[in-house]
Amino acid sequence: MSESDFIREVDEEMRNEQLKKMWDKFGPYVIGFALLIVLGTAASKGYDYWRTTQSAKSGDAFIEAIALSDSGNSEQAIAALETLKTSGFGGYPLLAEMRIAAEKSAMGDVDDAIALYSSVANNADYDVVIQDLARIRANVLMLDQGKADDVILQLSGQMDGGAFRHTARELVLLAYLENKAFAEALPIADRVVADAETPTQLRQRAEVYASYIRSKIVVDSKESAQ
Predict the structure, then answer these.
(1) Where, by residue number, does the polypeptide cross the bilayer (predicted)?
(2) Can you tell me the mean pLDDT for 25-36?
């Protein structure tokens, strides 16, 4: 064996010995880390499967509750929805709560329905769009009950923006008409007509409202002058 071969062999043995020492020292950590990756991946897939399963169960329960309602079994539907509200998965508890409010409204329990919608509207844990929708639904019922002042108070701030601003404007407009506050109602009607983003049917209704309000203002002015 030449001197260079001997040196290379010794160097190789030293490297192997050093690697063995390094493995003896750090090998268990490497194995443990690898196991964590494998277990973490398995746990993630298991959790995803669990979420999918729970969501499917809640979805089936919601569909069954709607079927009960459609067949005229409102009380049973509400009972099923109450269960889903407390033990459902994902967004189904919220859907259940909103549906319970709708069921109670249809059954004539309007005060309970308003309370449920208002609870959602005032719950900061929900998305703003969900809160606004619940507030709109509550105020539709409130307007039917003659609570025009409450509608004006709750929805005036919602007329300037948000997904339901057009509906909010119409409800506030109708509330002012309910109070015969024509001077306050007219600017809202004109605003609805002028807004290029106003839905066509709502604009047509607003034009009718505006014409009616102007005629009432003229009549009231003549009566006041006499």
Answers:
(1) 26-47
(2) 56
